[in-house]
Amino acid sequence: MVLFPDVQARARAEINQVVKHDIIPSIDDRASLPYLDAVLFEVLRWHTPTPLGIAHATSQDDVYDGYFIPKGALVMVNQWALSRDEETFPDASRFDPGRHLTIDGQLKDNIVNHFVFGHGRRICPGRWFAENAVWTAMATILSIVRIDYARGPDGHEIKIKEEYTAGLSIRPKPFQCSFESVSAEREGQLRAVTSFG
Ligand code: HEM
Questions:
Q1: Domains in the chain: how many in total?
Q2: Which residue puts its alpha carbon closest to atom 41 of ligand 1?
Q3: Is RNA-binding one of the keywords UniProt gives this record (predicted)?
Q4: For the segment 24-34, what is each residue's pLDDT rounded down to a tens digit?
Q5: DSSP of 53-86, one letter per residue?
Q6: FRET partner for 153 with CA separation of 20 to 30 A, picked from 35, 108, 109, 172?
């Protein structure tokens, strides 16, 4: 959100258009906030959390697309390559939630269950829970605070290096940023239900 302030502003504007200004969005609002969903799907695609999926093994000899795969072979799905497939995602390295929307701003049909959560019988059973949990966090945070660059003592923006951890599951490396409340009413509600109020 620091790197893409226009995306952040559009997501917040959508929230403020649909949800009353003194109410924190709830999961019931999800269907009415297609742009926020598009941001969620793009976050999961852009630096997909499990770039090589979860390892599997073949329980018997198999042939796939002309390739012989012996019993016991380790099989991993290259989700990173899928995330960068230019046919499905033109200009794939660009963070662009709009790619998941139709021309009239609705979510495209074929998004749910996309590759981020794996494939076939062993597809992630937690995907609905995961999506709803991340969506709720995003909606809450964006409805209450503006996220921006942190500033050093001289008032200058502290740049962010776009760096990720390596491994089976990846996430951004720690970085500094700032949070500014944009809704005293919603902030008050959040503080009332959390212990840090
Ligand atoms: C953004 C969050 C998440 C991502 C990106 C994710 C991704 C994945 C992926 C790629 C797999 C492997 C699927 C395959 O082998 O084809 C998987 C499996 C699995 N996930 Fe998730 N997951 C997430 C959250 C969750 C949550 C919240 C739960 C539980 C509540 C969960 C439970 C599981 C379980 C139990 C499996 C193993 C399924 C099996 O092998 O039969 N995941 N997940």
A1: 1
A2: 122
A3: no
A4: 999 999 999 99
A5: ---EE-SS-EEETTEEE-TT-EE---HHHHHT-T
A6: 172
